[in-house]
Structures are given as structure tokens and as C-alpha cells.
Amino acid sequence: MATDTPAPAGHNVCFTMHGIGVSNGIAIGHTHLFLGMSTEVDHYDIAHYDIGREQRRYDRAIKEVRDELKELADSVRHSASSELAPFVNVHLMLLEDSAFSEAPRDIIREQRCNAEWALRTQLDELTAQFDDIEDEYLREREADVRQVAERVLGALAGSKRRIAIKPTRQDSDMILVARDLSPADVILFREHPFAAFVTDMGGATSHTAIIARSLAIPAIVALHHSRTMIREDELVIVDGTQGVLIVNPDRAVLAEYRLKQNEARLEKDKLKRLKTAPAATLDGTAIQLYANIELPSDVEAVRASGASGIGLFRSEFLFMNRRDLPDEDEQFEAYREVIEGMKGRPVTIRTLDIGADKVIGGQEHTTENPALGLRAIRYCLAEPQIFNTQLRAILRASRHGKAMILIPMLSSYLELNQTLAAVARAKEELKDEGVKFDEFVPVGGMVEIPAAAIALPMFIRKLDFLSIGTNDLIQYTLAIDRADDAVAHLYDPLHPAVLSLISAVIRTALQHEKPVAVCGEMAGDVKLTRLLLGFGLRNFSMHPTSILAVKQRVLATSLPDIAPIVARVMKADEPDKLVALLDKLNA
Fold it and tell me: So which residues are the catalytic ones?
């Protein structure tokens, strides 16, 4: 229940910001500012009477890190890793040095600034001194200083990372405001039912945006300055459909958006009546609508949506938000839970798709262009033990229902052969151990790279099915980093090159009588449903919240009627003409 009221005139300034709406809907609530990365540093002035409180906050962070390092030193001192103890002790000694324990406290007092900024100022001064040191060994100690500073910054950020549950507010009334959110951060928010979130960075199809949609809450990214312009606990309206953020709205605007909110709720309730209706076009062609999920707990939402099955289980989310890796038994239990939960309906498990904007086990990106580097199947083939563990877990779970294995980002024939050999090897191991599994588990490949789309016959003969990952296919076709908001405006699902590739992949798959699905964001965009149907697509996989809207469009579509318009779309080479044809297609 909303409890917000506009602030009295003159107390808060009303203003509007525009970004990219990545998750539809309207939310009205109060802001909560979030510092996502431990290395991010805010700078704000504090009142004279807050100096002591800020210094105590800094002292608590120092103590937290000190306790953590002592515990770590004790744990390794008598273990096989005892050689690490001296390094931990060096960090403890640095922490006790006045450069860390006292100097930032002085800066807080002298500059009346927040603790993070004080530490950052001190760190800059210390590292500048290292630049003048000629001795290489001593110069390398700069890394230790940075690591200790980052630990303290992390401890300071920890207080902000915890979601502030205020006595007068409910989580569901909060709008999260951040510079950026990692996928891991967003997943953590599952435990806190925020009304919406907005970020300064991000693109329309970054994985963070995808996860936002999975939470089914409005979200806006690429606002650029929200984190500096918005204060804690301000009343805001988030219009995720239009990408508009209104801060401190007046009564008239607030009333208008409340009305829109109610209308959206009514429309959502109407769609629920379609849950059990078979998905078929007006001319009687059956369409399969599958769901994309990240975690086993998503199965309940899938079943509630009436989906035909799970077309994409992003297994990498089992590996995130943790320092270690899930072992075979843990993965097996997760896959089994999903497969059994779907009660005989197919479950397509994508193997570990790590890299780009997703990392695991505390790893960090080491290349300038992680989207082009060691990620997805490339990573798995470079880490055969991790890959083997996952394949064994999936195969073991396959005997509990209808499982399918999906390989991400295939680009070469060698990769395909190595992958199939890895699957065969895992099967042989299980057979030798007497472990039961489905020997005929289908193995499919994702078409996400133009090379795979263009040279599809090279792959299709050895695969049981295909799935088109439109997010990455667009990214690689148009050479746009979809996590970079600076080029987000160039991301275009309707680019003739993109449409040509998608159409060709579907046509080739049908010629080879291999099932093909679209599991990228285009599948859940109701404006593109008829276009994809016209390409020959019969299998869609999307977020569960999109299924009923897409089903409604399918039920109102006649394939013979749309065929001529789709043919004209494929011949259109001017954006305006293409958009006009798309409008006609959806009329």
C-alpha cells in the first residue's frame, strides 16, 4: 500500500530525468541510495556536528577489517597455506600504521567530508609517493596499500550494502538508486521486494537489465546523474515503460500516475485469464511459449505463467554471489529441482555462460573487451574440470524428467567437436560408475555470433536443436557493447542485418528439420511477435511475465494475413519505412 504524499511546496524541487526503460511498469516510492562497488567513492560534505560520527564510522570499518585479517591469519597459520600468513600480517601492519588509522580521521575533521572520500584522498597521496620510489620491490608495495584501502572501503560500503529497513517504510515502497548494479547485486535484491530501481549506467539488454525484468519490477538505466542529483528518501515516480523518472512530483502528476498504475494492474488481471488457453494462431498453428529462468526458485513463476516448459535456464547464476564454486552434488540438486518441478515439460539448461558482465568466484575481468574474450563455451573448454562437473550434474539430473543441454556462444567447428567430446566423456564416466542418466539428452547450440548464423550448416548437422540468443547476436553483428550506455542508442533489433540473420537461421533450421527457438529479449517483445512468426518461428522463450502478453498477440494473429507484410519488411532498407511496416503488421 502506498503511503507517499508530495512534499510541501518549497521544500523539494520537482524535476524529471530521462534514461532507458528496461523493465515496464510504474512504481511510486521513496529512494534508497545504494553504493554498489566497494571501489566507488562518493564525496559529500558533512556538518560540523557529524564529524565525530563519521570518524567513528571509519573506526568501525578499520576494526572490521582488522578482525577479518586476524581471523584470516589464524586460519592459514597452521594450514597447508601457511606461507600466506606473512602477507596477511603485512596488511595488518599497514592497517595499524597511522597513514590508515589516523590520517583519514584528520581529513574528515579538516575537510568535513565523508569517510570514503577521506580514505580515497589519503590513498591518492600515498600512491603518489610510491611513484617516486626507484626500488622496484618497495614500489610494488603500492599494491598492498591499495588492497588494504579497498578492504576498508568495502567495509564502509558494507553498511550501505545492507538494505536499510526504515521503521516508517516498507521495502516494497523503496526505489533503489545506484550508479550501477552488477548481476550479482541485482540477484541479492530478490530478498528485498523493492518497488523499482534506477541506475546511471547500463544498456537495454545488459544482463543486469534482463535480471531486472526477471524481478518484474520497473527499472530505468543510463540516467547518468541520478546518483548525484537524488537524495535519500525522496519521493519519485519510475515509469519503466517510457524511461522517465520524476523526482518530487506535485499532486497533479502523482494523481495521473496513480491512475496509470491502476490501469496497468487491470490489464494484467485480464491477461491472467489466458493462462490455460492453448497458444495457437487464428489459422490453427500451434506455438510453444517457453520461459527463461535464472534460479530454481523461478519455477513457481514459470508454472504460474502457463509456459510450455523452460527454454533457457541460465545456470551461471548458481555460480554467482559466492567465493567458491558449486560442486557436482549441489548443481545436481538444483537441476533436479527444476526438472522435477516442471513435471515432464522440457527444461533446457544452458551450460556455464560466464565472462563479459558476469564473473564468478571473486574473479575479475583481465581484458579490455571481456565480451570478446574468454567467456561462455570458450571459458568452459579452457576449464575442463569445471565443465565436466557441470555436465555430469546435468546428466545425472536428466533421469528425473526431460532435460536438454544448450551450449552458448559456439563459433567454430573445433569448439563444437570439443564440446560434444566433453559430453561423451562425462557420459562414459557416469556409465563406468554405474550412475543412471538419460543417454539421449538432446544437445543444442546457441546462435549468438554472426559466424555461427552464416555458417549454420557446419553446426546444425551435429546438433539436436538451436536457440537464437538475439541479445548477443545483435551485439556482435552491430559491434556494440550492450553493457556500454555510451553506445546504447545504436543497439537496434530492427537493423536489416540483424533481421536477415535471424530469418536465415530460422529458415535453415526448418530446412534441416531441427527445432529452433528465440530465447533473447526479442522473444518477449510483443511488438516483434508477428514478425518472428512471419519468419517461421514456432518456439519462443522469454521471461515468465511476458508470456501472457505474447500469447494474446499469437491468439490474434493469422499467419496467411501477415505473410505479405513480413515479406515487405525484409525488403525495406530504410528505418522509417521499416517502422511503418511494423506498425501495419501489429495493427
Answer: 207, 519
